[in-house]
Queue: 4 jobs
Job 1
Amino acid sequence: MIYGIGDLHLDYSREKPMDIFGENWVGHEEKIFENWEEKITDEDLVLIPGDISWALKLDQAYNDLKKVNELPGKKVITKGNHDYWWESKKKMNSLELDTIFFLQNDSYSYKNIDIVGSRGWKSKDSEGFTEHDEKMYNRELNRLNLSLNSTRGRPDKIIAMLHYPPFNLDSSPNEFVYLMKEYNVDICIYGHLHSEGHRYVIEDMIEGIQFLCVSSDYIDFNPLKIY
């Protein structure tokens, strides 16, 4: 089975309470871990599209990553907008977290299913979208392209992971959607949206791709079966 859950927002230091987003965030780490251990087996794959840890440095994030590593199943992780600890794959792989695959400009294969992705970026019609945002948007689009290019050719399915939703504020698909369409992506999961942001969630079949939001509070801190 393949499951998805994003925005774990783990905090080993306990300095970043998440209940500013609502009472349902109280004890959210415990909820995630309990639901995970009840549902996931070592044969399963869990996709985590960003915002894993509040840590600022990789050595600080290690404690949170170690918790994820010790949970059942294999995990594929992509970068979120709050993952400031994210460094080169060489440095992250040096942590020897044997159940975690850090996905960046590449892909991961699981039972003839290819997993691709990038962080994505906020939509171009967002308020205050700057020249810097334009550069970041295009860089993430290129990273998704590199990831898609790395697939081995004819998988049974392609599942894409994005942190930011690949839609404009008016709910229309953006360039990330059309790039995924070119490569015949089957499913795209994303996160990032919390609390009032849930009103921007789009879950539908669009351009031949099934879109699912797996932000942890949107799915009640319970990994969602993707495939």
Job 2
Amino acid sequence: MEHWLRKRAHLSPNELAIETMDEQWTFKQLYEKAVSFARKIAFLKGKHVAILSENSLDIIVAFWGCTMLESKIIFLNTKLRERELIQQCETADVEAVIGQSDKVQPLNLALPTFTFEDIESLPILDVEISVEMDLSSICSMMFTSGTTGTAKAVTQTYENHWSSAIASSLNLGLESHDKWLISLPIFHISGLSTVIKSAIYGMPIFLMPSFDATKINQAIQTRGVTHISVVSTTCQRLLENLGDNQYPDTFRCMLLGGGPAPKSLLEEAAEKAIPIIQTYGMTETCSQISTLAMKDALQKIGSAGKALFTASLEIRHGDKKLETNQIGEIVVKGPMVTSGYYDAEKANKESFLSNWFYTGDMGYVDEDGFLYVVDRRSDLIISGGENIYPAEIEDVLLSLEGVKEAGVTGIENTEWGEVPVAFLVTEKQWSEEALIDYCAQHLARYKIPKKFYFCESLPRNATNKLQRHLLKTKLTNK
């Protein structure tokens, strides 16, 4: 297939590709900058190249430039410590690292490193660059978000990315005025998938360096933004910042992923007529694999919809498919699903069975075929033989006045095996007795947290997903 950005620059040379608060680039300009970048680093052709950068025009140019060299691009999380970055570079056989100067220069890596400024000063070499893409080749590697422990390098082929973009468009549709705002990191799949959609669709993106509720709401109100991807935390902040104002009718979709969303949040959005569309996906599926259609948004609040057109989804216990409304592990397959983790034979054997990918997430499908995500399997608390899903307890706690964040995990207990405990970030002080009384009105007794801890913040990754496995570390510091 012809290189996506090359083809787009030919089809829509003067159409807007990227907009920031200060700049605008057409697809022709973006293509020319990527070609120039590729020819400056032609010595990295075909190599494993890591990119370490926050959201910027530079990271987008670097990504497209590396694809023109058929290099495998490994995205590194800028929040990681040097030891973690070294480990990930070793895992993915990285041969060079490029990125923004304040992230790359302090590192003591035993690898060639280049800042974007270094590359800018290099000469443009007269070399051939790829004008086509081999869809079966690895385009990128991206480490799992680490919400359950050690991250693994997910391989993502060009076909995976292409299939994800096409399946998404078949569900959400395409309109001539669409503009997708990116505030989540490009080094995570939500951000990268939108960059790729932009070239395939011919759709401009509004790029922000990071999440800023005020600036995002301003962009939706005044800059023609029609789509944005969010997680529960960032969605809540946008709603709070919006206040009594409303989004314009041109705003089509707030795509909500990153785990189960509190019912209270969805109800608040519905009251404000905000078009929240819940979705389910992950690094291993190159973003969405199940998404709620617009027409079902209000009738199926809390659902992540149905599998996209080219995807399949089942609920299983082991290799047995479960019946309607039975909670089990979500398993998926489709052309957007990774073929495996890089150099991780054991993990691949554990995660794949007859072309089905076992996600590690728990959920159920209702009588109409709609998916409801319950929790991560690894977050499941088993207390006295009863299954307890932390998200259900968190949902109840978040409905309390003044509770800004809630995280629940299990701790060992000699009598029950495990019991739930809760960590709260609040604006209002609640007594433990009041919290227990409130939970007792909404939860079975065995689900009520046995202890409540008040914190200034909860551990989250770069996309603001709650890292429940790190909550236990707060106990050791008390």
Job 3
Amino acid sequence: MTRVDQVTEVAAWVDGRPVPVSAVDDAERALRGGRAASALPSPGTSEGRQLRRWLVQVLSADLLVRSEAERRGLSADDAPPLAQLAPARHHLLELGSAAAALLARNALARAVFVAVTAAVDVPEAEVVAYRARNHDVPGSTSEERVRSHLLGAARRRAFVEWLDVERAHRVRLAPGYEHPGDPRQPDNTHRH
């Protein structure tokens, strides 16, 4: 296969715009040249193919939020720092690895996060119920702190839900680049 052929191969389409396999290759090369290289699976193995599928998830989400930012007239200037959206490491885990990677590396994704979660609110009853359940936890008694904690979690859930819905409608994955958790793809190892 020549380099020209590789450039025309597509791993996914977002709103009809291609995510070229060469972009996946570049992202994998960057990972393998970074600090975490020794923790990565060997290329060509089942786990290595799963890594590439995960990279397609990140790259397609990246293109999706860039498209959404264009549609909404958002820029990187509208983005808060990552620590404002996910103040602690476990908040990133709530998002899932692809969404966390997206928000960590893409200011436009953080701007879209703010826009798509702007209407999210926490009902007073939820704050009261949380305080009642956690009355003996130090620091949980401040109503504003509880509201902020619950609102952050609700916004992270809303962003992930938005991203999942938008992916389902706007992203088409090429064969071999299915979602890593798709039980129909041959490298999926999640079994019940």
Job 4
Amino acid sequence: MLEVLKNITYRHLFLAQVIALVGTGLITIALALQAYDLARGQAAQVLGIALAIKMIAYIGVAPVASAFAERLPRKKVLVTLDIIRALTALCLPFVTQIWQIYILIFVLQSASAAFTPTFQAMIPDVLPQEREYTNALSLSRLAYDLENIISPMLAGFLLTYINYHNLFLGTVIGFIGSALFVVSAKLPQAKKPEFKGVYRRIKQGAKIYFNTPRLKALLALNLAIASASAVVIVNTVVLVQSTFKLTEHATTWAFGLFGLGSMLSAFILPKVLDKFSDRSVMLTGTTVLVLGLFSGYFVTSYTGLLVLWFILGVGYSTSQTPTGRLIRKSAASENRTSLFAAQFAFSHACWLITYPLVGWLSTHFGTLQTFIPMAVIATGALTLAMSLWSSRDETFLPHRHDDLPPDHEHLLQHQVNGVHIHEYMINDHHPKWSKPQ
């Protein structure tokens, strides 16, 4: 897996991602503690609303930003967005009112909504070989897990000496460091799509998404993943500090165990994906999430919570890490930014539902009672994904073009023994998914 880091450009981008995510992990913990400090018994609801605002920013900004970003120099776009995120995070330690949290979170996450799809769409151009790209996805998952394991450990250490408000400064340092690594990387030039208007580019990603069976199934899996992760993010601080009467340090270790499970899963996934299909791996991971949510109702101790969070971390990574592979095989280079933006927006639309729902359920019915309805939602989503995603998910499909003349360039390019066959993707020539011939 680590051989992919021999690519200098990818190495710089990976380091940029790591340092930014460590900072983001600190802000997640600091925000949870800040919400608890300001709202006490209403902390879960406040945190749920704050995270819902984050999702609104992601859903509303990502598709629009991608339509502009794909026509601008990648490096300037990424560095500018890192600077905006750093300046916004710098304001968070001075928050004294809950509404101030909401405003700053919207600004911060709007910049992230523009940054992330642009960053993700660039990696397949840096690493065009599927095996290298799979390794990069696992490394990326490991980097995200630093948000859940290294950051809590670092936060626990820092909280011994400083107030939690100072954790926000770690986020500022992370974003500045990310910008410096992006500046040092030699980024590939993207193939710019023909410009047919911003609105059409925004629609392009959604069109590909909803006409590709594997991606429609992915949307259902996103809801199951969001159901489990929302329970972890929103309820950890309440379960640990209110239900089990433990300290801030115990909260950071709970987040850390979730990250550890996810990290270990991501580490072995490249070898697993060599032997099993994306569909089998992702459905298995989601099944683990469903079973974990149902068992959460019976957790009665902090130790039991740590074990459950570790298991949910394994399922989370297993179900989510191959997502980039699905996006890569579903769109050509010029359409990947819009498709990554669509996945970014649709996946976070699921969190927009689950974050406030978990907060509301926890506040009105209790934290343990929250597990069952979220498990039911995840079960329904998993069942839908299984029905939408055929086990015969073929990349190369034979198909016809009755609307094109026999001498059309597209037909002549992909003719094999009298059969028109090629890697099938939704685009201008293929507006709908081909039915089996």
